[in-house]
Design goal:
Layout (H helix, E strand, L loop, with lengths): L4 E2 L9 E2 L4 H26 L4 H4 L2 H5 L3 H37 L14 H6 L7 H7 L10 H5 L32
Antiparallel strand pairs: 1-2
Helix pairs in contact: 1-4
C-alpha cells in the first residue's frame, strides 16, 4: 500500500511527497509571488516614494483642511498595514518554494503528516495540516472587550447566566429620569 510518501530519504526527518505534482504547485507559488511583488512595488511607489512630511509641506498645508491631513495619515497607515501583510504572505510563499526545492513540501511542519492535496490547492503556501492549523488558531476565552475588565472588574463572561438581557432594566419612570413634554 503506497501512501505517496517515501520515508527512506536519508538525513531528513520529513518524508518526501511522491503523490503531488510539484511543478504545478511551484507554478502556483511563483505566480503568487509575482503578484505579491507587483502589489508591494505599487504600494511602495504610491505611498512611500516620499516622506509624509514632504507630501504635507508648508505649501500643501495652505489648501488643506486639518481633516484632509488626517485622511492622508489614515491612508498612509492603511498602506503600511497592507505592505506588512504582503511581506508576511511573500515570506510564506517563498518558504513554500524553498520546501519544494528541499523535498519537504506538503508535509506538516508540526506533526510531519501529509497535508491534503485539496488544502494545498486552496492555499499552496500552507505549512500545517488542518488539525495542526486548528490547534494554532485558538479561540478567545471571551467575546467581551478586554477593556470591560478594567472599567468594570468581574464583568461576567457570556454563558455564565449573569449577563443583563434586553428588557431587564427598570422603566424610566422608576429610574429617577424625569420625562419632559416639549409640546
Amino acid at each position: 500500500m503506497n501512501s505517496g510518501m517515501d520515508r527512506s530519504r536519508p538525513g531528513r526527518g520529513a518524508p518526501v511527497r511522491n503523490d503531488l505534482d510539484l511543478r504545478h504547485f511551484e507554478n502556483l507559488l511563483t505566480r503568487e509571488k509575482e503578484r505579491l511583488l507587483r502589489a508591494f512595488t505599487a504600494i511602495k511607489e504610491k505611498t512611500f516614494s516620499q516622506g509624509q512630511k514632504d507630501s504635507l509641506s508648508e505649501e500643501a498645508m495652505y489648501d488643506q483642511h486639518p481633516a484632509d491631513i488626517g485622511t492622508e495619515t489614515f491612508e498612509r497607515e492603511k498602506d503600511l498595514g497592507l505592505k506588512d501583510g504582503i511581506e508576511i504572505n511573500l515570506s510564506r510563499v517563498e518558504g513554500a518554494i524553498a520546501r519544494i526545492r528541499q523535498g519537504t513540501y506538503g508535509v506538516c511542519l508540526r506533526c510531519g503528516q501529509p497535508i491534503p492535496e485539496g488544502r494545498l490547492e486552496a492555499a499552496p503556501e500552507a505549512e500545517l495540516c488542518v488539525r495542526c492549523q486548528k490547534e494554532e488558531e485558538v479561540k478567545p476565552r471571551s467575546r467581551r472587550p478586554v477593556e470591560e475588565q478594567v472599567i468594570k472588574p468581574g464583568f461576567p463572561d457570556e454563558g455564565e447566566g449573569n449577563e443583563e438581557q434586553p428588557g431587564d432594566e427598570p422603566p424610566l419612570s422608576q429610574s429617577g429620569v424625569v420625562s419632559c413634554n416639549l409640546a
